[in-house]
Amino acid sequence: MKTTNYRAINTFKSVALHSFLISVALSCLFPLIWMVRSSLMDPETIFTEKSLFPKAIRLVNYYNAWAEGNFGVYFLNSVLYTTAVVVGIVFISSLAAYAFSRLSFPGKNIFFYMFVGAMMIPLPGSFVPLYVLMSKLGLLNSRLGYILCMINVGLPLSILLLKTFFDKMPPDLEDAARIDGCGRLGIWWHVALPLARPALAVIVIFNSLNVWNEFILAMLLLNDKAKMPLQLGIMTFQGAHSVDYHLLMAGLTISSIPVILIYLAMQKHIIKGLASVGVVG
Amino acid sequence: MNKISAGIIVFCLFIGLIILNKDKVKEKSPDKVILWHWLTDRDKVLQELARKYKEQTGVDVVVELYAPADSYVRKVTAAAQAKMLPDIYGNVDTKETFANYIRSGQVADLTSYFQADNQAWEASLFPKALEGNRFYEDNIYGVKPGIYGVPIDVTNMQLLYNKKLLAKAGFQNPPKDFAEFIGMLKALKRIGIPGFVSGWGELWLVDCFSSNYAFNIMGEAKVMATLKGDVPYTDPDWVKVFMVFKEMKDSGGLAEGIITKPNKYAEQDFALERAAFAFNGSWCVNVYYKMNPRLSYGVMLPPPVNDKFPMMIWGNGGSSFSVNYRSKVKERAVDFLKWMTAKEQQALLAKETMNLPSNREAVADIPSVLSDFTMAMDATTHPTVWKYNENPIVVERFYKGVQSIILGDKTPETVAQEVQEEKQKQIEREKRINNRKNRAK
Amino acid sequence: MTDSFPKKLVFKDSLKNFLFAFPAIAIFCIFYIVPFIEVFRLSLMEWNGTFPPPEFIGADNFIEQAQDKLWWGSMVNAGFITIIALTFQNILAFALALACDREIKARRFYRVVFFIPPVLSEIVVGIIWQWILYSGMQGGEHIGLLNYLLAKTGLPHLVHNWLSDPKTALACISIVHCWKGFGWGFVLFLAGLQTIDKQLYEAAKVDGAGGWNVFRHITVPMMAPIIVVVMILTVLGSMQIFIVMIAMVGQGGLADYTSVPVLQILFSMNGAKRFGYACSQSIIFGLILICVSAFFKIISNRVKQA
């Protein structure tokens, strides 16, 4: 009798939990489904048609969006920027966060708090000085300039996050590695990075989303169409007044696929965590 | 530890490369004309025109798009500071800012080109289209009189009515005056049709609507006197302007949530027949067509409150381009703009983008609703052609006041009071700034 | 490094340590500090963004700002959203992360789906939520999903103009904001939960500790640093809210009921053409955010010690 009761409570609990999870999941899925559905429709029927499933599927929207939005060039550029910036940030920020967390040098805390402070102060007015600075450095309309700027944008948050994870790193692992003859760089590479893998995954996700969707700095710093990122292609579907919703939705769907893929690839690392840190040193 | 040193060396090389990268940035080839714009929906046509122009004349025009408009303004502002504006760039800001650009020596005076050959170029365009780019003798900005920009199309803002929904409420014709309009809104409300929609979640649409009625209620002279600071907003005539909004609200004919509606959603409402009237600009023809090609609607001036003064709507050169004063290819740049406003190119622009052409000879074959819009071009005015302009902070207060009236938070009288207080504050601030300047001298 | 080490070695050592942080600091100094100094300089100036050039006016911008009721009102509005996000959004994110950390069915599916809102474009978010909260009618039926459901489920008295009533607008926007943002908290919490040694749980189980006790004495203390980071990020994200705002109530907002600091700063800069004032506003705004974050940090340190 008691066991059935216990089981009933358990079932009830799990039903309640799942119905809650499913309702949240539905609210997240719905806009995505709506976006994909609209990307397959006639422009006229997007808002009149109530059903979530279009009667006639127009895959040609994707072709048109790709061609009209000049996605061929922009897409590659965005891939380049995202990869370069994310790789740069992962290395630079993890080195710095490791230093801030584990090593000592004069002015360490000042620098760290400067980074955190920088995250807080919004600088909408800084675009003029930034433009002037970049033109003086000869970095206007240069891919490298844009990449460096974006690295700078992502650094503070990444450092803060990684430092939080490095702080939690058990010191005995570090000592063991030191005994094994690892230097600072070795510990960083063999101990700290694997341990912070969930955090690194989060940083990769965060920064790739950030760079992928960025257009404000790109518009400011770049001139050539051949250097522009994907977001400019998406802009072309939204006129000052008129919007080509079918192309816009197709464009947005195309543009969200890589981000979702990155997330899919990275979320595995988020949950692996400690279990996979077997060998040290 | 050697690894670290190696890393540092690599990094320093990296930084060095950046600085050396300077030389790699190509010098702009001297015969190319660079054009910056923010007109996302016209980018394709502009590219096409540039290609044609290259075919015809061999001159390279590079069209560069920066969007959205905010980003574009940022880019131009920054480039102006770095003295790196392109040869041709689109104007997107207020007249005052435009005047500041001219005063800082970044805009070429095009008057001589317009007046060459017996004013041939000037005569081919709608006179109203040029007004926004023209500075007269004794303008308050202290700019040398002249024409400083080339309009490639014109727009104006009017009232649109859905013929089917009006018929449903028993009306065959659109309203002749404001009282009739209010009556119609009430009748529509009775049969459950929202009367009026507009993107009043955006300041400029309210600004424009109220300015239409201000011209109608008190006439241009008094409006200008108010902007100058001689007539207060607490004047009974201005209270009447605020009353227009109150009466519309009291009729129950305003679409729900109108004061927070971005224009794109308002356009969607009208296109999907969720409201009988809409206040919008001529570009809406294109928008409605895309969302609902079967929509049957007409266009009219907002119904006047009285007939003492004419109803004036906003309209001007929609998008215009200026030439950089420092440009090394000024002549070529002007030639291109001249070519772009010629009949053939204007017809193409109008056809592709459904915007009103700025060249009057190109009006021939455009959709009928669109040509109805052009009919009203004579009744247009625009802040860019006024002698005085209101301080943007006061305009913002005005807008928020109108929102409060529609919300039922405040009466027209209190709003008038508050707007006037803000105006006073801004006048005093300007005085302070001027005093400081004089002292510095 | 012990005292017996020669000074030179200590110096060399800390130099090598510094080299770890050097790339980050170098990039930061070039691309952040230089523009920042310029912004700080401009905050003491009156400048319209074009011509005439900036003019020094001392602390006038800051004095004016202190008396600017609208500015502080916008701060209060953002504060309201922040408080809702700190509680509602973070609790939701934490609960979902806990659920997905356990061995439940379909947890992989959930893990992916919960991250969709942050990936979605604001355009889609705007369209969908505008439709959900829409308050008009057509042909006797509510167009908005929420009102439609309320009317159908026998709660017609709850039908409301959600976005244009000052009483509900800010709350509705907060909910949309939380919905858009909880995915980040979810991912961060999930990552944090992975760093907790699973053996701790098992040891607790052996000791006979109940679910609540495990949560209270193992999960929360172990997660404290992550919680602080998420709280700080939530404060940042919510205080700096504006894109969702524009998508929901337009560039103009609902009178002054939905004004937020970033939109005020942007208005000062693009609308009113007062660059100096905008810069002074962003500096004060940043200082406030720094204070709030420092406050969280101090609280968490206290909790840790207690």
Plain-language structure description:
- The complex is a heterotrimer of chains A (281), B (441) and C (306).
- Chain A has 281 residues and is mainly α.
- Chain A has helices spanning 2-38, 45-48, 60-68, 71-102, 108-120, 127-137, 143-167, 171-179, 184-195, 197-212, 216-221, 230-235, 245-272.
- Chain A has one domain (68-276): MetI-like fold (Orthogonal Bundle).
- The termini of chain A are far apart.
- With 441 residues, chain B is α/β, with parallel strands linked by helices.
- Helices cover 52% and strands 12% of the residues of chain B.
- Chain B contains 17 helices and 14 strands.
- Chain C has 13 helices and four strands.
- Chain C has helices at 7-42, 60-66, 69-101, 107-113, 116-119, 122-133, 145-152, 166-194, 198-206, 211-239, 243-249, 261-271, 275-305; strands spanning 45-46, 55-56, 137-138, 141-142.
- In chain C, a hairpin with an 8-residue loop joins strand 1 (45-46) and strand 2.
- Chain C is flat, with a radius of gyration of 25 Å.
- The chains are: A mainly alpha (281), B alpha/beta (441), C mainly alpha (306).
- The interface between A and C is large, with 89 and 83 residues.
- CATH superfamily of chain C, by name, is MetI-like
Number of strands of chain B: 14
Structurally, the number of domains of chain C stands at 1
Oligomer: heterotrimer
Strand % of chain C is under 5%
Q: What is the architecture of chain C at the second tier of CATH?
A: Orthogonal Bundle
Q: Radius of gyration of chain C, rounded?
A: 25 Å
Using the alpha-carbon principal axes, give the shape of chain C: flat
Mean pLDDT across all amino acids of chain C: 88
In helices, the fraction of residues of chain B equals: 40-55%
Number of separate strands of chain C: 4
What would the CATH topology of the largest domain in chain B be? D-Maltodextrin-Binding Protein, domain 2
**What's the total helix number of chain B?**
17
